[in-house]
Design a protein that fits this description.
This protein is of the alpha+beta class and about 675 residues long. The chain is built from 24 helices and 28 strands. The chain has 4 domains: about 130 residues, ATPase, nucleotide binding domain (Nucleotidyltransferase, domain 5, 2-Layer Sandwich); about 180 residues, Nucleotidyltransferase, domain 5; about 200 residues, Carbamoyltransferase, C-terminal domain (DHBP synthase, Alpha-Beta Complex); about 90 residues, Outer Surface Protein A, domain 3 (Alpha-Beta Complex).
């Protein structure tokens, strides 16, 4: 039996976003399950290159179908990650706020129409189901945990008019124990606070990383005004008090401003408050239910610091955190729920890996893709890429590493990673500056050979594997100076243990690095820059490699270095606009008594304003129909050589921001196919 689970938005990649609540319709994904086993799973952002995509997951669905060798008509059941009543209410809210939008106020009908439009086949209403958002979270964790019984805690910002639930898992059944209203949302509690630290939605993990630099004591009493703990594990948060109180008591940080110690202390107080509330809830229900094991899911379950403290507390004998705990994981839960309903439950096995996304393709295909960039890349095939890559890193290189199928979820777990020597402290600052273009305090994670983990990290008794970077653990004091690049300021690290069985290629790479250095650990961070999701395809990897200061790239069996380039090399490439980008030219006041014509490029999936561009670049981009050779576009201008070089530099800066696409001419069709895949299915 084939069951397809879906999460995400309602509009297409080239359409303006349908604005609904901040905590709903994002992290679009599709997951295909056959008789309770995952065949394929991927987030839509990996295809359309929009972080936390709020678009309909058309390409994700098509990938899942292709991976199974089936058509949409072959799918037995399709499940959406929210109840029908909630989805209908969201549609009503949408039409009220956007009266010009013409959509049916029937969520099931709308979903069926979208599927029919994208895939050219009718979907009978009996094949479409809507499931409880938080039960989907809960099932996604319990069904993958390998536990016969456990307590399940699903917590996030919101969904289905709730912000979380507690449940009991037993056998193949999940039974609800208690729910939490949106007014008591721990996700919104965190989000509302970080607004005053210059952050917003999806930035919660940044504040988690900032918290160890602060002291919770100065603002502890202030934060106690924001929540109450009561008997029987109950709590209450006062979201309406947070803003006014912080405005009166701290210097609000605007985005881009430097951090003060006060901001660090507020981060520490927020993290401490979240931990106090969660421990209060779980202590009670641990005692009330007698459950010795815990499953966690929902966006708040990505708080690895909290998870680590739960692990060390001994409150539970074992804890499983669903590696895609955010809303993309609800697509997994929805598919598993429906499969279970029809007598095809997930096998009671502990999840070992989540390499469920697209594969790189054959070596020949990879080589062709790389060779298309001959003017920009030097490509060499290696008989032992692990050995060669380990040599590079042992000699100080920071590399991109792309192998096999991509990971499902927000963590790069050794198949779509940026890797480096974990020892030099300078590597942390270097990668933050040259690749991520992000705050220098942000930590990086270590990947360690599973069999060597205890030598370097303080793991609680009974804990032998932590394969998903879900827990912050203590680095042994004697190893902290040695592992300076991955040890956070508080002596901890967000650990991934790597087993030879789950990922032999990545295990072999770390093993080769150990042979050269004596260190069975690598610094591992996701292969992306600050403007894009994690890379998925070879084309994605090349684009990120060429728009960052990475020293080398390993794709399949190929070792890749950059070549010095000329204007002629760039002129041979094609330029196109992503489906989500649009050009704008407006007449506007730039001073009280001055008007100017301004040019810009805007992203439909983002609330940010247009990025300013020069008139020359605007005119050049307006000359593109689908795609165009950069050389042909330049020839149509009257610019001299020097000005053309300036224009190409400006274009490359837009490429770095993923506001334009630059690629070999043949690759343009590949890009468009990926955006429009369902239309051609």
């Amino acid at each position: 039996m084939l069951c397809l689970g879906l999460s995400g938005g309602l509009d297409k990649v080239y359409e303006n976003p349908l604005e609904l609540g901040n905590t709903f319709l994002h992290d679009g994904a599709a997951v295909l399950v056959r008789n309770g086993r995952v065949i394929a799973a991927v987030e839509e952002e990996r295809f359309n290159r929009i972080k936390h995509s709020n678009k309909f997951p058309s390409s994700s669905i098509q990938y899942c179908l292709s991976a199974a060798g089936v058509q949409l008509s072959d799918i037995d059941r399709i499940a959406f990650y929210a109840t029908e009543a909630y989805s209908n209410a969201m549609l009503e809210r949408l039409v009220i706020s956007n009266p010009d939008v013409s959509i049916p106020l029937d969520a099931k009908l709308l979903l069926r129409k979208m599927l029919e439009q994208e895939f050219g086949t009718e979907v009978d209403a009996s094949r479409v189901s809507f499931v409880s958002h938080h039960i989907a979270h809960a099932v996604s964790a319990f069904a993958m945990s390998g536990f016969d019984q456990s307590l399940i805690f699903a917590i996030d910002g919101g969904g289905d008019f709730l912000s979380g639930l507690l449940a009991r898992g037993s056998g193949t059944e999940v039974t609800q124990v208690e729910t939490f209203p949106e007014s008591n949302s721990l996700g919104l509690f965190y989000l509302e606070t970080i607004r005053y630290l210059g952050y917003g939605l999806f930035d919660e993990y940044k504040v988690m990383g900032l918290a160890p630099y602060g002291d919770p004591a100065p603002h502890r009493e202030l934060f106690k005004q924001f929540y109450e703990l009561s008997d029987n594990g109950r709590y209450r948060v006062h979201l309406d008090r947070i803003g006014p109180t912080l405005l009166r008591n701290i210097e609000v940080r605007r985005k881009g401003m430097p951090f003060t110690q006060q901001h660090r202390d507020v981060s520490a107080s927020l993290q401490e408050a979240l931990e106090r509330i969660v421990f209060h809830i779980l202590r009670h229900h641990r005692g009330a239910t007698g459950m010795k094991r815990l499953c966690l899911a929902g966006g708040v379950a990505h708080n690895c610091t909290l998870n680590g403290k739960l692990l060390y507390s001994g409150l539970f004998e074992d804890i499983f955190v669903q590696p895609a705990s955010h809303d993309a994981g609800c697509a997994l839960g929805a598919a598993l729920m429906i499969s279970n309903e029809f007598g095809r439950p997930a096998p009671r096995e502990r999840l070992q890996e989540v390499y469920w996304g697209p594969d790189l393709g054959s070596d020949r295909t990879v080589e062709q893709e790389l060779n298309a960039w001959a003017g920009h890349l030097d490509v060499e095939r290696s008989d032992n890429v692990a050995r060669s890559a380990a040599d590079w890193m042992a000699n100080g290189a920071v590399i991109g590493w792309v192998q096999g199928r991509s990971e499902f979820g927000p963590r790069a777990l050794g198949n779509r990673s940026i890797l480096a020597d974990p020892r030099p402290a300078a590597n942390k600052d270097r990668i933050n500056a040259m690749v991520k273009k992000r705050e220098g305090y942000r930590p990086f994670a270590p990947s360690v050979l599973e069999e060597d983990a205890r030598e370097f990290f303080d793991l609680p008794d009974g804990t032998h594997e932590l394969p998903f970077m879900n827990f912050v653990v203590r680095v042994h004091r004697a190893k902290r100076d040695l592992l300076s690049a991955i040890t956070h300021v508080d002596g901890t690290a967000r650990l991934q243990t790597v087993s030879r069985k789950a990922n032999p290629a990545y295990w072999e790479l770390i093993s080769e690095f150990k042979k050269r250095t004596g260190i069975p650990v690598l610094l591992n961070t996701s292969f992306n820059n600050n403007a894009e999701p994690i890379v998925d395809s070879v084309a994605d990897a090349i684009a990120t490699f060429l728009t960052t200061d990475l020293d080398g790239l390993v794709v399949g069996p190929f070792l890749v270095k950059k070549r010095a380039t000329t204007l002629k090399d760039w002129s041979s490439l094609a330029v196109s606009l992503p489906a989500y980008a649009s050009l704008h030219r407006v007449r506007a006041y730039t001073a009280r008594d001055r008007q100017e014509t301004l040019c810009g490029i805007r992203v439909s999936s983002s609330s940010r304003g247009a990025v300013r561009i020069s008139h020359d670049l605007f005119d050049l981009l307006m000359g593109i129909e689908g795609e165009a050779l950069l050389g042909d576009l330049l020839e149509k201008t009257t610019l001299d050589q020097a000005r053309r070089e300036v224009l190409v530099k400006e274009l490359r800066e837009l490429w770095e921001l993923r506001l334009v696409r630059v690629h070999p001419p043949y690759a343009a069709r590949v890009h468009r196919d990926r955006d429009q895949m369902p239309d051609e299915a």
